[in-house]
Every structure is written in C-alpha cells, then in structure tokens.
Automatic annotation (TrEMBL):
Compartment list: Membrane
Keyword terms, alphabetized: Glycoprotein, Glycosyltransferase, Membrane, Signal, Transferase
Keyword Membrane attached: yes
Recorded topology in the membrane: Single-pass type II membrane protein
InterPro entries named among the record's database cross-references: BC10-like, Glyco_trans_14
Main location, first listed in the record: membrane
A Pfam family recorded for this sequence: Branch
Highest rank taxon of the organism: Eukaryota
GO molecular function (one): glycosyltransferase activity
Signal peptide coordinates: 1-19
Protein name, UniProt field: Core-2/I-branching beta-1,6-N-acetylglucosaminyltransferase familyprotein
One annotated Gene Ontology cellular component of this protein: membrane
Species of origin: Zostera marina (Eelgrass)
Length: 347
C-alpha cells in the first residue's frame, strides 16, 4: 500500500509540475507577443486586409502622421504604390501581371472601384484582395478627388510606400519594372504639372468665392493622372484649407480633378513638382476626353513613337525617358500589347 501511495504522490507531483511549466510558457509567449505588438516593426507593418471600417475623416487623420525624428529607426525597402481608380474590372491586368512578376517586395497595389463590385482575381494574382473601401464617383465632381485622396490615404498607411502613382483601368506600362522603380525612387520631384491656362477652360473656370485662399494668379490646371512622393501625398491627404472652397465653388464646368490638386500644390509645394507628367495621353482629337487606342492601333511603330520621340528634364539633366505610362487603351488592345511588350517594353 505504501508503494502505491508513493507512486500516486509522484504522479500527482509530476502532473502539477507539467501544468506549472505550461502556464509559464503560455505567459512568456503572451509577454513576447505584447512586446512584439509595441515594436517599431510591428507598428509600421501594413494591414494584410485593406478593407476597414474607418470613414474618410478617420482615414485621412491616421494616414497624415509624419515621423518627427530623423533617421531610419527600422530597415525598410522603399516601395511604389500603384493606385487604380476604376469603375470595376481591370481588363488589362494580364499585362500588369507580367510587369509586376518577380518584384513582389517593391510595390503595393490599391484599387478603388464602384461599391458593390466584386472582383474575381485568383489567389495567385497581384491584384487579389487589393480593394479599398470605396464610394461612388462622378466625372467632373469633387467625388473624384475624394477617391484619389482615399487611395493615397490607404497607401500611406504602409510606411514603406515612398512613391504613389494614380492609374486607370486603361493605363499601360511603357518600361519594365526595374526602369520604372529606379526612375521614381531616385527622382527629386513629383510628376504633376500645374500649368497656367489663361483661356476659358483655365482661368475662365475660376470663381471669386475661392478667395482669399486662392487668388486668380495662383489658379492652375493639370492632368488628373499624377505621380507624387510621400511628402506631397501627405500634403494632399491632410488638406482642410482648400478642400472646402473647391467643394463649394468649383462646380461643373469647373472640374475639380483638373484644378484642385494642381492649384493647391502650386501654392504649397511648388519646389517639389517636376512640372510635367509621366503618363502619355493623346489630345489631338477634339473633345473633352483623350483618344482611345483599339487593337488595330497597336503597332511597334506607334509604341516606339511614344517611347522614344521625346526629351525632357529629369533631376536637372536632359533625358529621353519621359513617359513611363500611357492611356487610354481599350480591352481590344491587350493581345497586341502582350505580343509586343517583351521586345519593346522589356517585360
């Protein structure tokens, strides 16, 4: 009986020790997780799922924070944020997939489409689950600028994003990823052109109600399709000075997407702007929209003309690499673009 009694005590003691060890390990793991949650690397990690419950005011507030201590406290690889403003499908996404292939750590993708649109990108796609919370947009209204600010704000939440490109579903790439990446990351300027159009479609759209924030001498016009660095992106997102005036007084025929950002940045950040665009468009056909290129338009001669027959300034020097993107390309152009991309665009 004594032997059985001692065996029973030994078993109970062993079980007790095991329970204590388990609890200690669980406590240590929790403490480690709590330490990780307050570490710098965990704080700046981007959200794995882009859908969130923040409204625009909360989103813009959160995304406009700027680190005040200079110097890199953590190691991070600068990324380019490719922001797609679209109604729904991205018919040219197979071309973009080829462009992105092999460079996963150097880019981020954000898509603003109409609410309710459900994409069907496969798990292997670069575009899989890259939708952000969106709202209805209307051409020529402030809602387009809202969508662009929404894209910028969501992209700013990933602190590794250094450059931000606004694109549409009809945009294509004119260079390979390495060229585009180096060109943007090394640029000292943002690519937005606030030009002084003194005609009826420029200064003729100015409203005196914009005073005193915007004098007519500061009124500018520019392309909707911009590329900006992080400093300029934060300037756009945090603005509460000019936005109310544009929302109230820039009504059709004054188009906010052509005037709000160019005017505001011309006033606030003129030294950071390259005063040119890197997105090619053809305005040679009359109308309020640029030319759309169909499948029959896509030839090597046509594409070479866009790529090679320009000169511009880049970081104070003349270059022949002026356009990195182009629009508007119809879905029917995809097959020809996929065929010509390897020999012309090198991707």
């Amino acid at each position: 009986m004594k032997i059985l009694y001692f065996l029973l005590c030994f078993l109970l003691l062993s079980v007790g020790v095991r329970i204590l060890q388990t609890r200690r390990n669980f406590s240590n793991n929790n403490n480690n997780e709590e330490k990780d949650n307050t570490s710098l690397s965990n704080m700046i990690n981007p959200m794995s799922i882009l859908l969130h419950q923040m409204n625009d005011t909360q989103l813009f507030w959160k995304s406009s924070f700027i680190p005040r201590i200079k110097g890199n406290q953590i190691h991070r690889m600068p990324k380019i944020a490719f922001m797609f403003l679209t109604q729904g499908p991205l018919p040219l996404h197979p071309l973009w997939e080829k462009f992105f292939e092999g460079h996963r750590s150097l880019y981020s993708i954000y898509i603003h489409s109409l609410p309710g649109y459900v994409p069907d990108f496969p798990l292997s796609s670069s575009f899989y689950q890259r939708q952000i919370p969106s709202q209805v947009t209307k051409w020529g209204e402030i809602s387009l600028c809202d969508a662009e600010r929404r894209l910028l704000a969501n992209a700013l939440l990933d602190i590794s994003n250094e450059r931000f490109v606004l694109l549409s579903e009809s945009c294509i790439l004119l260079r390979n990823f390495t060229t585009v990446y180096n060109y943007l990351i090394e640029s000292r300027h943002s690519f937005l052109y606030p030009y002084n159009d003194q005609g009826p479609d420029g200064r003729g759209r100015y409203h005196p109600g914009l005073l005193p924030e915007v004098n007519i001498s500061y009124w500018r016009k520019g392309s909707q399709w911009f590329e900006v660095n992080r400093e300029v992106a934060i300037e756009i997102v945090k603005d509460t000075k000019y936005y109310p005036k544009f929302e109230k007084f820039c009504k059709p025929r004054c188009y906010n997407d052509e005037h709000y950002f160019p005017t505001m940045l011309y006033i606030e950040k003129p030294n950071l702007l390259a005063n040119r665009s890197i997105t090619y468009v053809d305005w040679s056909r009359r109308g309020s929209h640029p030319a759309t290129f169909e499948g029959n338009d896509i030839t090597d001669v046509f594409l070479k003309k866009i790529i090679d027959e320009q000169s511009c300034e880049y970081n104070g020097k003349t270059t022949h690499i002026c356009f990195l993107f182009a629009r508007k390309f119809a879905p029917s152009s995809l097959d020809s673009l996929l065929r010509l991309a390897p020999q012309l665009f090198w991707y």
